[in-house]
Amino acid sequence: DVLNRWGYFNLYAVPPPPTPRGFTAPVIKPLRSFHGVISGFKRLSGSNDEARYEITLQPRFARLTRGKQFRIYQQQSVPEIVEHILRTRHDFRGEEFYFNLARQYPRREQVMQYDESDLAFVERLLADVGIWYRITSDDRLNIDVVEFHDDQRHYQRGVTLPCRPPSGLSADGQDAVWNLQTVHRMVEQSINFRAYH
C-alpha cells in the first residue's frame, strides 16, 4: 500500500562523463526536489519486460481538502486559527509551516466553519485578511513547507519563463511554461430575490 505515504522526487541534470580512475567522482546534487504525500497510484501498463506506473505526489497541505468540518473558533486571530488546524487536525510540525507576517491580526470573537473542507475554510479566512501562501521544499530536512505571507516583499520577482509545449526535441533542462489557456464564461449580471409571506 503506497497511498498516504511520504515521498519525494528529485530531478537531475544529464550525468557528467565517467570520472577517470584515481579521481574522486563529483557529488551530483538534484536540480530540484519535490516532497509530499502520495495521493494517487495507477498502473498504466505492464508486460514481461516492464511495467509503467503513474504516481501523484501532492504537498501535505493538499490533505486539507479531505472531508467537511463543522467548528467554532473563539477569541483567536486568523493566523492562530490556521496554525491550530494545521497542528491539531493535520499533525503539521513547526518546521513544516511558518508565518512571515508584517501586520498584526486581531482576535476575532467567533469564527464558524460550516460544511467546508479545512482547505476551503483556511483559504477563505486568509483571503479575507490578505494573507497568501506558497509551498516550497526544504532540501535540508527533505520536507515541503507552507509559507504564509502578507507582504509584497516576499513575491518572487524577475522570474521569466519561456512558453514551450513539451516535446522530446525541446527538452533542454530549463524550466518553462508548457501550456496557457484562456477561459470565458457567461455569468449573471444581476439576481433578484423575492420573498412572499
TrEMBL record:
Top-level taxon of the source organism: Bacteria
Coiled coil (UniProt feature): none
Entry-linked Pfam families: Phage_GPD
Protein name from the UniProt record: Type VI secretion system tip protein VgrG
Species whose genome carries this gene: Pseudomonas brassicacearum subsp. neoaurantiaca
Gene responsible for this protein: vgrG
